[in-house]
Design brief:
Layout: H1 15-18, H2 21-78, H3 82-88, H4 95-118, H5 120-127, H6 133-139, H7 142-158, H8 162-185, H9 191-212, H10 225-243, H11 248-257, H12 259-275, H13 278-290, H14 297-333, H15 340-367, H16 371-396, H17 398-408, H18 413-423, H19 428-448
Helix pairs in contact: 2-4, 2-6, 2-7, 2-8, 2-11, 2-12, 2-13, 3-7, 4-7, 7-9, 8-9, 10-16, 11-12, 11-16, 12-15, 13-14, 13-15, 14-15, 14-19, 15-17, 15-18, 15-19, 16-17, 16-18
């Protein structure tokens, strides 16, 4: 199962931030709850990966990854930025705003689902096989479900109720895993992870709607939908431009290297992103917490610098330890047939480490309404990753994809310049630890050579 999608403020805060007791306390608790959620989520995610890869094998798992990657990208579009608009709105959203957001999301969701179903013949022609088609069509049902979840989730995030969010997301993920394991046990093949995904998304929608106390009514209120759509367009273009990178593996790797190569790259990405899951909490808390410091630029800058350092020294060791222990773990946990994933892991992990730094800076730019800087960066990132994969994969195999991941990191310079010009942000103290951890990631590869 894929994520879609970071602790920020709280630990080692500058003294000035601690004066704002309510914000500090809420952020500390929110960071702790989400950190715990993502920590436990890593265990569930890795458990799911181990079960699916061991029982399904590279080919069947590659079919699922191909289908879910395409659907997950469309699901990220379905919210149309309406959920983020609700989170960052200066005054508490009223019922009319929630109803308008629900209507917008459903309209977009059903439109995307219909278009996705219609292009199935084109995808079959692109891949030269229809094995993925039925799982793909069934998984399309999760698009409106995932989209609707954004409305009650936005209410909970706005309230900084991360404890409830953490419990809901972990429970939904666990239920999905249990469903997948049950079907994998009876040899249901690709339908095991498909069913797990359906259970996961449905459970989260039901639980968030109940926890938020919202009735998901559909109504487009005059005066509400225009600003929501305007903000959502900018937000969607920037954030979802980034999500285009998730299509490179199923579309380009699948096209040039086959289904099994998609599975190998997906496992490497899953491991790196699972170990880096804490960065997901940071992005979610950053928009809600930093929004309260928009008019206090010095506090805003100090909090962001502190969070960047925390990201690197927390994430770097996790990624590095797996790089060193990976050959041993793969041999006993997944089997020798999955070792090609180890070849691409250092490149993917380096990309995750670099992204952990610029993801927080992107969140800060969103709060400051500089979405277009982020969009330009993400567009360049996707172009470099796609072009690099297109050119290097046929020549170098999976290593070619890994080199494309490193090439795409050059695009983050746009975000770096944006935050440096606006906030005078300094990243000097994270350069040395980031470089050291990156070197460790490639150490096993250098030794084996």
């Amino acid at each position: 199962m894929t994520s879609s999608a970071f602790p920020v403020l709280g630990w080692n805060q500058p003294p000035a931030l601690c004066d704002e007791a309510a914000l500090s306390a809420n952020t500390l608790r929110g960071g702790a709850y989400l950190a715990a959620r993502y920590g436990l989520g890593v265990l569930v995610s890795v458990g799911n990966m181990l079960v699916m890869t061991w029982w399904l094998g590279p080919h069947v798992y590659g079919l699922f990854v191909t289908a879910i990657s395409l659907v997950a990208f469309l699901a990220t579009l379905s919210r149309a930025g309406a959920d983020t608009f609700l989170v960052r709105h200066e005054s508490p959203p009223n019922q009319a705003m929630y109803e308008t957001a629900t209507a917008i999301i459903l309209i977009v969701s059903f439109a995307l689902t219909g278009i996705a179903a219609l292009i199935t013949p084109l995808l079959v022609r692109w891949y030269g096989t229809r094995e993925f088609a039925m799982p793909y069509l069934v998984l399309l049902a999760t698009i409106p479900v995932s989209g609707l979840t954004g409305v009650p989730m936005a209410k909970l995030e706005r309230e900084l109720n991360f404890r409830r969010i953490a419990a809901i997301e972990l429970t939904g993920q666990s239920l999905g895993l249990l469903a997948a394991i049950a079907l994998a046990w009876v040899k249901a093949g690709v339908w095991a992870p498909v069913a797990g995904q359906l259970v996961w998304q449905a459970a989260i929608l039901i639980a968030t709607a109940s926890a938020a106390g919202l009735q998901l009514r559909l109504r487009l209120h005059r005066g509400q939908w225009r600003p929501m759509c305007s903000f959502g367009l900018a937000m969607t273009l920037s954030l979802r431009t980034w999500q285009l990178r998730t299509l490179v593996n199923p579309l380009l790797v699948g096209r040039f290297a086959g289904t099994e190569a998609v599975a190998f790259v997906a496992v490497a990405i899953r491991i790196a992103e699972s170990l880096g899951a804490f960065r997901l909490a940071a992005g979610r808390i950053a928009i809600a917490a930093l929004a309260r410091l928009q008019e206090q630029r010095e506090r805003f800058r100090a909090a962001l610098e502190n969070a960047l350092f925390l990201q690197v020294i927390t994430l770097g060791p996790l990624l590095s330890v797996f790089a060193l222990a990976g050959p041993f773990l793969f041999r006993f946990a997944l089997g020798a047939k999955w070792t090609p994933s180890l070849a691409v892991y250092p490149f993917v992990a380096a990309g995750v480490l670099v992204n952990s730094v610029y993801n927080l800076q992107a969140s800060a730019l969103f709060v400051l309404e500089k979405q277009w800087i982020v969009m330009r960066c993400y567009a360049a990132h996707v172009v470099l990753l796609g072009a690099g994969t297109w050119l290097l994969l046929p020549r170098w195999g999976l290593i070619g994809y890994g080199l494309a991941e490193l090439l795409a990191c050059c695009a983050y310079y746009a975000i770096h310049r944006g935050t440096a010009d606006i906030l005078h942000l300094s990243c000097h103290k994270i350069i040395l630890p980031a470089a050291a951890f990156t070197a460790i990631l490639f150490l096993p590869r250098l030794i084996t050579k």
